[in-house]
Write a structure and sequence with these properties.
Elements: E1 7-11, E2 13-17, E3 20-24, H1 27-37, E4 40-44, H2 53-58, E5 62-65, H3 90-105, E6 110-113, H4 115-123, E7 128-130, H5 149-152, E8 157-161, H6 166-171, E9 175-178, E10 184-186, E11 193-198, E12 204-209, E13 216-219, H7 231-250
Length: about 250
């Protein structure tokens, strides 16, 4: 990787291993930034009270908000907590919501994936629905039970990109197959967000920030997992990388 490679902030999850709390990010996302987007991922600890977000964002060229097994705490979008909303990572919530809002304000390239899309929606004042597979007319978007991770993340669900939208332009087409694995989804769309793709059951699968002034996309599926082999997945990371390079060149 060249010394001039751009930097991408990746807010961390909190994980407890043994008696220690760890700040971590999944390797699949880090590899997609390194090998497909062409940048250097920098894991940002989930220490919202200690991290100066403005300073952080002034030193990176993009933000990637990852998926996770945890969910955004429902109190952040005005819903009473229940078992169906669990598990939580409130330290991550505090960090990512601040980073997302800061990235939008700073016109910094932003790619938000799965939980990241849900955080983007909440950061913009939207809400989430839980256990959507139990709602009338909805598909079961959850990952299948399988011991092999590649089978769990297999590309098997169609989505339709909005005609003439940003995502359709990135992909070069409107119909693609994705690996959309989730039990929560956007309910009330956040302020300033525009729908960029939907599933056959109407579930919102991608959004963009309308007046971001930069690449600012959220997808509910997992392009990071197959970014090195699936063209649609790679196209998203390449477009994100191009936006980060442009930001670096401009500053």
């Amino acid at each position: 990787m060249p010394d001039s490679a751009f930097l991408v902030a990746v807010p961390a999850d909190i994980r407890t291993i043994g008696n220690h709390r760890w700040h971590a990010a999944p390797e699949t996302y880090l590899n997609a930034v390194l090998k497909v987007a062409g940048g250097l991922p920098v894991i940002v600890p989930a220490l919202a009270d200690a991290v100066d977000v403005d300073t952080l964002l002034s030193r990176v060229d993009g933000v990637l908000v990852t998926g996770s097994v945890t969910n955004v705490h429902p109190s952040l979008y005005g819903v009473a907590p229940s078992e169906s909303h669990e598990p939580y990572d409130t330290d991550r919530d505090a960090m990512t919501l601040s980073v997302i809002r800061g990235a939008i304000a700073a016109r910094l390239p932003l790619l938000a994936i799965c939980r990241g899309l849900q955080e983007l929606n909440v950061a913009c004042g939207g809400s989430l629905a839980t256990e959507i597979q139990d709602l009338d007319g909805r598909m079961d978007h959850r990952a299948p039970l399988h011991p092999e991770q590649a089978e769990r993340y297999a590309i098997r669900q169609p989505v339709t990109a909005t005609p003439g939208g940003m995502l359709a332009g990135v992909l070069g087409r409107e119909e693609i197959q994705v690996n959309s694995l989730h039990r929560q989804a956007i309910d009330r769309l956040g302020d300033g967000l525009v729908v960029e793709a939907t599933a056959p059951d109407g579930t919102i699968e991608a959004v963009r920030v309308a007046d971001a002034g930069a690449f600012a996309l959220g997808v509910q599926w997992h392009p990071e997992y197959w970014a090195e082999s699936d063209e649609a997945s790679a196209a998203i990371f390449r477009a994100f990388g191009d936006a980060c390079r442009a930001h670096r060149a401009a500053r």
